[in-house]
Structures are given as C-alpha cells and as structure tokens.
Structure prediction request, 146 residues.
Amino acid sequence: MIRSFQPADLDRVCDIERSSFPFPWSTLMFIQQHHMNPDGFFVAIRSGKLIGYVIARLEGKTGHLLNLAVDPRFRRQGVGGALVEFTIDRLRKEGAEEIWLEVRISNHVARAFYSALGFKEKRIAKKYYLSEDAIIMTKKLLHQNL
Prediction:
C-alpha cells in the first residue's frame, strides 16, 4: 500500500534514509519537504510497517523526483518501482509531461534501476554532490486517455 506521509512516519523515514545513503538528508530536510510539498511525499507500507518513501514535486510541466529509498531488507521486491510508478501517475494527472531526477554518477545500481523504468541519462551535472558529479535522468510522460 502507498499512502501520504504523516508526521508520525518521520523517524522511520529517517532510519531508512540513513541506511540508504552515504550523505543522508537531515530530519529537518524531511520536515521542510513535507511543509513545502505535503502532496508530494508518500510512503510504502507492507504488513503495517513503513518500508520505503518517495518525494517529488511538480515544477511547471515537469516533475522532479527528489528522493526515493527503500529499507534494505525490502529491496529488489518491486517496492521502489511501485513508488516511482505511483509518483509518475500522480504527476501525470497534475499535468506533468516529463519527470527528471539526479543520481550520483557512481551509483550504478540506481542508474540501472531508473533506466529499467524508462529514464534516460541526459547530461552530467558537475560537482552536484560537492565531491561527485550527478547524472540527470529524464522520462517523457505519455498522457493516457482516461
């Protein structure tokens, strides 16, 4: 199940963040994202336990996937893909024509994951992560006739 983030989820989201990234977002960053963009923060729940999250926002006609992580014990089970597809569907309904994200150039697992979901590597953002370049990946969103 995927649902909107709730403030009570914060500690668990931060735990997943710290177990997923070498330079994790702070608790304050998550609070700020929720405050500025409450409709763009979602969590994945399995058997009553929060196992992943996604944060995205609409910027004009373009969606920006800001953060995504899945508890390491639940990776490679479709959770991340479900969160991304959920986000794409939501952004498409809001009028997005494209979605983009940035990923560390050294993160080959994430780059392969996003490529498998239809994202294309477009350009390099030099020193995006201070000591490391990022790859900007994009995906065109086809609007389905509803």
